[in-house]
Amino acid sequence: MLQRGIRGTVAAVKWSYFTAAAVHGYAVTQDRTTKTWTVTGSFVPGLVDGFKLRQRPIFFVAPFKRGAWRWEILAINTYDGGRFAATLGPLSTEDQHGITRPTAGN
Amino acid sequence: MGSRVRRPETDILTISHGDTLTVKKYLTAAEFRQLVKASARPVRIDTGAPTADVALEIDPTESGVATVIAYLLDWTFTDFDDRPLVIRDQPPAVVRAALDAIDADSYMEVQRAIQAHDTTMRTLAASEKKILSGENAPVPTLRSVG
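The joint structure predicted for all components is written out below.
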C-alpha cells in the first residue's frame, strides 16, 4: 500500500475556536490509492475535553511555521493511555491569518 | 426548555484604521470563572487577630485585560515590518504579551470595543432569558400537596 505522510509533535483537535484536545506526537498518512487520510497520535494528559471532543464538526489541526494543515475528523477512536486514531476528510491549509483554502491533490 | 449550551460563534468588531478584532460571541462557564478569577486580587483584612483574613476584590486594571483575553481570538494588527502580530490559537500568556506590546491608545481602543461587546452580549442573553421564561426571576418549584 503506497502512502504519503506527515509526522509532527504539536497539534490539536479543534471544535470551532476551542481546543478539544491537545496532541503531542502524531502521524498523518494518506493512502495513495483510496486518497483516504488517517491520523494516529497521543493526547496530552489533562488537556482533553470530553464534551468538546464529542461535538461535530471537529478538526485535526497541525501547525507549521506560517500556517496549519487542517482536516475534518470523520471518525475518532480513543484508547487507554491517551492514544487516538481518526479517519480524516480532505486536507486544507490555512495561513497565519486563519484563512483556509483547499490543498491541491488532497 | 432551551439548550444551555451555545455553539461557539464569533463576531468581528471593526475599530479604527480598518482594523478588526475577532471575538467570541459568548463565554462558557469555565471562561467566565477564569475571567472572574483573573479580575480579582487578594486583600488582607486586618482584624487584629494573629492571622489576617483574606478577601478578594475586583482589580479594575486586571479586570479590563482579563475581559480582553477572555473574548479576543484574533486581530489584524501588524508589527512595524507589516508582519502579523500572531495571537490566534496562542496561549493567554502570548496574547497578554502582544497586548502589552501595542501602544496604550490602541490597547484602550481594543478594551473599549470588547467591553462594549461584552455588555451587548450580556444584555442580549438577559433578554433571551426573559423571552424564554416570560419573566425575570427563576420559576419557583411547586410542591405537591400532601
